Amino acid sequence: MGAARARTRRLSRRPAASVADAARGGASVAHHRLRHLRQPDELRRPDLHSELGGVRRPDRPPGAGDLPSGLRTGDRREPRAHGRRPHRTDLARHRIAQAPAARGRAVRGRPVDQPLVSGTVLLLRRLVRRPARAAVRPRRGGRATRPRVGGEPHPRLCARRVPARGHAVATRGPAPPGLVRGRVRARARPAEPHVAAGQARAHGIVRDVAVGCLPDCGVRRVQTERRDPESHGLGGHPPRDGRCRACAGRRKPTVTPRVHTDPERRARPPPTGTPAGRRPGMNRSVRFDDIRALLVCHVDNAGISRVKVLPHRKLLSASTHGVTISNSAGVLFSVDDHLNATRDVDPVVGDLRGIADTSSMAMLDREARLAWAPADLFSLDGTPHPTCQRTALRRVVDDAEDARLTFLVGFELECTVFRPSPVEGEPPVPATTGPAYSTRALLEVEAFAFAALEALDVAGVPVDQMHPEFGTGQLEFAFAPRDPLAAVDDLALARVVLTRVAQRHGLMVSFAPVPIAGGSTNGCHVHLSARRDGRNVFADPKAKLGVTPLGANMIAGILDRLEEGVALLGGSVLSFARLRPHAWAGADICWGPGNREAAIRFVPGQAGMGAEQSNIEVKPTDGAANPYLAVAAIIAAALDGVARGATPPKPVHVDPSTLTAAQRRSAGIRPLPADLGSALHRLESSEFYRGVFGDVLIDAYVATRQHEWEAYGEHVPEDVADLVRWRY
């Protein structure tokens, strides 16, 4: 007020007429020149002359005066026009109203009665044209972003700098809904990213969050949080140590942790490398720019892949907010979509969040711009849900790392390919006629087989080999060993890829344990290797068993837990129809080098290559299992054997079914449970697996599989095979 009064006294010393003439002349000529400037359409204000000339617009409230709303002569605050943050033109009009010519001072040698024209127009030109330049090239040291006109993001211009991470700019106006002073809440983002704002903002590298300045301050700050550690060169500078003008002379604001008031916002942070997901171990990456739609998938307790699809504009939220998944779709559906219930998980009330792991994102089809990502199940409070199978595997792998053990997992995925029957109305028939493992069988499905290899390569799934199998229409894909979580992700992805390729070639593919009753069965054998201090524990040529003592402990642990855990390795009524002698399915609890009828086949590798190739193969696993639970159960049993110092029985070098009952007892050979009902009973009463997975997950899994046993346990395999052939 003191400064305003001083300027008023200086103006009063001159004749009123000369002062008014100077003001009117400067404003009029400024407006005349302004009309010829090349301005964006959004910045052309037809009412500029009326405001500069002191004429009140009809739509303005009485008493508004001839200055923009919210301004007084000498007011040093940022002007506020009609309840919004001022644009640069508002600042220009404010400065014109306080021009030196109007205050009776000489400027650049001009007499005081000469209107100030060139300086005003130069000021306007600099202020008005700057947004157009910023839309093309960001200002040095800052990042071009969407300006705000009327409180909303401007659709065409980029004018305002946003400082780098940890810095803030003060803006006025009410805090966004849900803001708690001193806490952070993500600000609503526009539906479409602004392309001219730069690749950083368009692809989720940064996000804006509203932060309270001080506990009693009404000014909020827009803080930019950076997501990509590789983009460091786009920073700005903080104004006044991150505080607003009103609080600049006060104590520094206290730093408080980021806590979301909305439970749905408290999701797991995205993995490193988001949004450009990279397939672990592969020289391939997926950029959000290349994706039209993202399939967010999880495998439920029935072994079925469930999906939610995100369009391109929602990709940034895939790894933070994820997708909504009902309890039923998450963990309670059976193979026939029967809805089950447990004591801890309600099938009707409650939701889960499926958070996509974009570090494992893969491209399904580059032409269609379709991508895939596995999902973890989270509660609404942001914590992993007890029924999340992928999280259960991650916990077991962490336990192995604590024991200084590193596991690698590889799968042999068997599937049966069908083609339409030549007889109209008849069911599909196998796509090959044999012979087993023959070149002729491969040539019958040559187009599909090589298209599948190419599609798997595009998706980043490493295939070691592919060949026709024993049964008609049967193929096997052997995947390279990976860390357990990546290996299971590859398996889930490979099944999606093979299904898509088969449909494009007019074929159908089945991963069911028994696709054709009385024919060959499909397994999903798990190859497991482990290292401690860089040494393969399943390779010791000098040892009697061919493995180290640590490897022997692991084999013993898996054998000891097979009887109570086999329901996790298959879990379908057909899984136990597959576990029969002479099917190479591992129906007997024993182990031996190269023994394909034993539950655990020891693979010693080539001479001199044992350290790189030696592993064990767990054969009872099939395509009806949840692969995350199956691998977690195997590794947990191996770790249990190490912890107990378990000793394995003697290896079996013959087909166990050829031995007498006495020989089987002497060798410690036991049969696996005969049916799904018996296996589920053993799993439900297993203290070991309840300790590994928790009661909530075990109860949900047993309830899901128990329905299948009760509904189809008494049916003949042909009927069950017809029901579930295309389910997995």
TrEMBL record:
InterPro entries: Gln_synt_N_sf, Gln_synth/guanido_kin_cat_dom, Gln_synth_cat_dom. GO terms for biological process: glutamine biosynthetic process. Residues 14-29 have a biased composition (Low complexity). Residues 38-60 have a biased composition (Basic and acidic residues). SUPFAM superfamilies: Glutamine synthetase/guanido kinase. Residues 1-111, 134-156, 224-283 are annotated as: Disordered. Belongs to the glutamine synthetase family. This is GS catalytic domain-containing protein.
